[in-house]
């Protein structure tokens, strides 16, 4: 009597893959499904109906959690996961940060929602989570992967760039053009990637004996509104004292360029600006934004492939090492020593 093991052996796949291909439950590459079906037909294999009824349903969906569906930073992640799932006939279930509590609580609630749905696993991008949260989730759920999170616990399930190196690259972009009076706008204080970016940025400046005074530091919380307000604050506190601003993400950098223009300061003639992410926004600013690129789509694709392998017995190649890249554009110029134009901004509200 032909069994599922015979079908799997002749089709060159695992028993689980053969079972999913014949039951129609779970993600299997189309070519693999056709091969299994052809082998089953050739061998005369017919699944027992009783066994089919007893089999637990296999979920072919992968969940994705991001803090916001509207944030430009997460669009490449969502699109990349969707593309990987679509290629194998899988489905995506998404959740974002909503409801009561702070960003951390919203993230925990969103992840819990996904785990209560028919998801075989989930891709998580949640900078508000603490290290202990990540370790706890890893321990309780084997098919959770974390994107834009430095390796912690099971490093195979963390996909991130070297954010500290990215911060150093941003600093070098300014130092190389002669900037020594530099301001900075940090992102969300609780976010690990923000802490690493800023640590690398300040470490590189310190290596060149270029400190950033406290009154030239501001916090913009990774938002347009925060970046705009932080730039206004810097202008009021440090008028004429800086020739460049580093922003810990592109949204704040775009807002900084807009706020500088309102103060009649030209980028990069009067003030240079560097961002971080290389989001779609970067090439649509005027001037185009110099920024540090995060290969978010590649990290998300590899996180998805890891889950497809772990959940459905596939064999996609997976990489974990991603490097930041400085994207040189027009928002950084040679440092201008003449601060007469900057002194005019003190009265701007």
Mean model confidence by pLDDT: 88
Estimated radius of gyration: 25 Å
Flag low-confidence runs: 49-58, 338-349
* CATH structural class of the largest domain: Alpha Beta
Keywords for this entry:
349 residues, alpha/beta, 3 domains, six-stranded parallel beta sheet, six-stranded mixed beta sheet, Rossmann fold, 434 Repressor (Amino-terminal Domain), disordered C terminus, 12 strands, single chain, elongated
Describe the overall structure.
The protein has 349 residues and is α/β, with parallel strands linked by helices. The protein has three domains: 4-54, 434 Repressor (Amino-terminal Domain) (Orthogonal Bundle); 61-160 and 297-322, Response regulator (Rossmann fold, 3-Layer(aba) Sandwich), CATH 3.40.50.2300; 163-294 and 328-347, Rossmann fold, CATH 3.40.50. 42% of the residues lie in helices and 15% in strands. It has twelve helices and twelve strands. The chain has helices at 4-11, 15-23, 30-43, 49-54, 75-87, 103-116, 131-140, 163-175, 192-207, 224-238, 250-262, 296-312, and strands spanning 61-66, 91-96, 119-124, 144-147, 158-161, 182-186, 217-219, 244-247, 272-277, 290-293, 321-322, 325-327. It has a six-stranded parallel beta sheet, with helices on both faces. Strand 6, helix 9 (192-207) and strand 7 (217-219) form a beta-alpha-beta unit. The chain is elongated, with a radius of gyration of 25 Å. Residues 49-58 and 338-349 have low confidence and may be disordered.
């Amino acid at each position: 009597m032909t069994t599922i093991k015979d079908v799997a052996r002749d089709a060159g796949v695992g028993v689980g893959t053969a079972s999913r291909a014949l039951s129609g439950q779970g993600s299997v590459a189309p070519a693999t499904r056709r091969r299994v079906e052809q082998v089953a037909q050739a061998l005369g294999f017919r699944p027992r109906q009783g066994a089919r009824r007893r089999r637990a349903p296999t979920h072919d969906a992968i969940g994705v959690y991001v803090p916001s569906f509207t944030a430009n930073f997460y669009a490449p992640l969502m699109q990349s996961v969707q593309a990987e799932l679509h290629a194998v006939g899988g489905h995506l279930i998404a959740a974002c940060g909503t409801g009561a509590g702070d960003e951390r609580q919203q993230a925990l609630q969103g992840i819990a929602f996904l785990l209560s749905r028919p998801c075989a696993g989930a891709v998580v991008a949640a900078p508000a989570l603490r290290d202990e949260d990540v370790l706890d989730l890893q321990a309780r759920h084997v098919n959770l992967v974390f994107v834009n999170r430095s390796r912690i616990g099971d490093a195979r399930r963390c996909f991130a760039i070297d954010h500290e190196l990215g911060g150093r690259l941003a600093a070098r972009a300014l130092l190389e053009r002669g900037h020594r009076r530099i301001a900075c706008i940090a992102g969300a204080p609780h976010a690990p990637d923000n802490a690493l970016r800023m640590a690398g940025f300040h470490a590189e400046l310190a290596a060149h004996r270029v400190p950033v005074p406290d009154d030239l530091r501001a916090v913009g919380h990774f938002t347009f509104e925060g970046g705009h307000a932080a730039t206004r604050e810097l202008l009021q506190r440090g008028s004429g004292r800086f020739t460049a601003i580093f922003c810990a993400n592109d949204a704040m950098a775009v807002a900084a360029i807009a706020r500088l223009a309102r103060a009649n300061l030209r980028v990069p003639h009067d003030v240079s600006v560097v961002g971080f992410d290389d989001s779609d926004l970067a090439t649509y600013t005027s001037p185009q934004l110099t920024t540090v690129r995060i290969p978010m789509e590649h990290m998300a694709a590899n996180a998805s492939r890891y889950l497809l392998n772990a959940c459905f017995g596939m064999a996609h190649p997976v990489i974990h090492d991603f490097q930041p890249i400085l994207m040189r554009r027009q928002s950084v110029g040679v440092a201008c020593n003449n601060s007469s134009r900057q002194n005019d901004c003190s009265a701007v509200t």
